[in-house]
């Protein structure tokens, strides 16, 4: 309960920074350079990025590939059933690989950012400011997906869903 008065900030959305609470920023990306002066007046801590450790990054790459292949196996079967076809795995890999590998990496990264925080702070009791839930539906890989994964609003809501 010690962290209950601390505000967890997961993105650079200034509206999630609260009023005067102590802030725990999930990473450097939460404090854009142009906002640094605003933060200097507050008590805060910035969590070190989990992939700043190169050995962890390499180990995680292997873990992400395992996750990808597990999901891919399932999806290739289900997509054949859904579309009433019998396409081979190479067919589905050609269609799915870019998006699915990216997806697995993004979700894994967000999960690990939170795990890193909880290891350091030893508590999951943080205040958070909720914003309206966004539609997580992705219209396409190139524009919509890439725009969303770099959006503070989308990431803020993703972190909230992971925590919940």
Mean pLDDT, rounded to whole units?
87
The Rg value, from CA coordinates, equals 19 Å
Q: What is the molecular shape?
A: elongated
Percent range for β-strand residues = 5-15%
Topology order in helix (H) and strand (E) letters: EEHEHHHH
The share of residues in helices is 40-55%
Distance between the termini: 17 Å
Largest sheet: 3 strands, parallel
Tally of separate helices: 5
Explain what the structure shows.
This protein has 164 residues and is mostly helical. Helix content is 54%, strand content 7%. The protein is built from 5 helices and 3 strands, in the order E-E-H-E-H-H-H-H. A 3-stranded parallel beta sheet has the order 1-2-3, with no helix packed on it. It starts with 5 loop residues before the first strand and ends with a helix.
Describe this protein with a few key phrases.
single chain, 164 residues, mainly alpha, three-stranded parallel β-sheet, 5 helices, 3 strands, 54% helix, elongated
State the gist of this model:
The chain has five helices and three strands. With 164 residues, the chain is mainly alpha-helical.
Topology:
Elements: E1 6-9, E2 22-25, H1 36-40, E3 44-46, H2 54-83, H3 89-121, H4 141-149, H5 152-163
Parallel strand pairs: 1-2, 2-3
């Amino acid at each position: 309960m010690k962290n209950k008065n601390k505000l967890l900030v997961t993105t650079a959305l200034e509206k999630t920074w609260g009023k005067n609470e102590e802030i725990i920023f999930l990473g450097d990306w939460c404090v854009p350079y142009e906002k640094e002066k605003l933060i200097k007046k507050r008590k805060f801590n910035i969590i070190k990025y989990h992939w700043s450790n190169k050995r962890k990054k390499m180990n995680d790459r292997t873990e992400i590939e395992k996750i990808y292949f597990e999901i891919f196996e399932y999806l290739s079967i289900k997509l054949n059933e859904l579309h009433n076809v019998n396409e081979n795995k190479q067919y589905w890999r050609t269609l799915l690989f870019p998006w699915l590998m990216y997806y697995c990496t993004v979700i894994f990264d967000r999960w690990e950012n939170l795990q890193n925080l909880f290891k350091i702070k030893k508590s999951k009791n943080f205040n958070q400011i909720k914003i309206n839930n966004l539609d997580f539906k992705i219209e396409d890989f190139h524009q919509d997906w890439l725009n969303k994964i770099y959006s503070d609003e989308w990431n803020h809501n993703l972190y909230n869903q992971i925590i919940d």
